Amino acid sequence: MKLSETNNKVKSSWICGMKKKSSFITLENADSITQQADDYLQTLVNNKAFIGSVLLARNNQILLIKGYGCSEYKCQEKNTSQTIFRIGSVTKPFTAIIILKLYEQKQLDLNNRISLYYPDYPHGNQITIKHLISNTSGIEDYTDMEAFEKKCQEDLTIDQLIEIFKNEPLKFKPGSKYCYSNSNVR
């Protein structure tokens, strides 16, 4: 299958899953595949459908390593193969794993109230670590708030993020409902 013969959904999967789906890549046609992938990714960038960094490899040989698009919305810097990206929600499972490992090692209690760590946090006596990692805290999602939209391109500290949402009323009683919120675990 040629890259140009697939639909957009398959193309994206194909590129991301190249290792599993690229048995047709040989040393003889690697340059052709690399050029097709590069052309396709550049088309996506031109259509504002992709930004990022790509590493395409086969048998431990790098076929393509390149950045595409801009590293931030004002486009003052182009992406490179070394660009560091904000990975957003991908951090949540890692954070939860670390918390659960600390719990397993008896270094942390999931029932600890967040007031133990943030004494001045409103509702801190009602919300536990378990509520945070299970998205049952009732805390407003800061990414849905106007205050965050004004600051979303800044590199905010944890304390600065907390300031955005800490005085908002809880959406529900902690532990009573599930509601995904970026404010719970970063």
Number of domains: 2
Q: Span from first to last CA?
A: 40 Å
Strand content: 5-15%
Shape: elongated
What is the CA-atom radius of gyration, in angstroms? Answer: 22 Å
Order of helices and strands: HHHEEHHHH
Largest sheet geometry: 2 strands, antiparallel
Q: Please give the number of β-strands.
A: 2
The helix fraction, in percent, is 25-40%
- In DSSP terms (H or I, runs of 4 or more residues), the helix count works out at 7
- Order of strands across the widest beta sheet? 1-2
Query: What do the pLDDT scores average to?
Result: 81
Structural class: mainly alpha
Oligomer: single chain
Residue runs with pLDDT of under 50 for 5 or more positions: 1-27
Key descriptive features of the protein:
mainly alpha, 186 residues, 2 domains, elongated
Quick overview of this protein structure:
This protein is mainly alpha-helical and 186 residues long. The protein has helices at residues 8-16, 18-21, 30-46, 91-104, 129-133, 146-151, 158-165, and strands spanning 52-58, 61-68.
Task: Give a description of the structure.
The protein is mainly alpha-helical and 186 residues long. The chain folds into 2 domains: 66 residues, no CATH class; 78 residues, no CATH class. It is built from 7 helices and 2 strands; from the N terminus they run αααββαααα. The chain has a two-stranded antiparallel ribbon. A hairpin with a 2-residue loop joins strand 1 and strand 2. The chain starts with 7 loop residues before the first helix and ends in a 21-residue tail after the last helix.
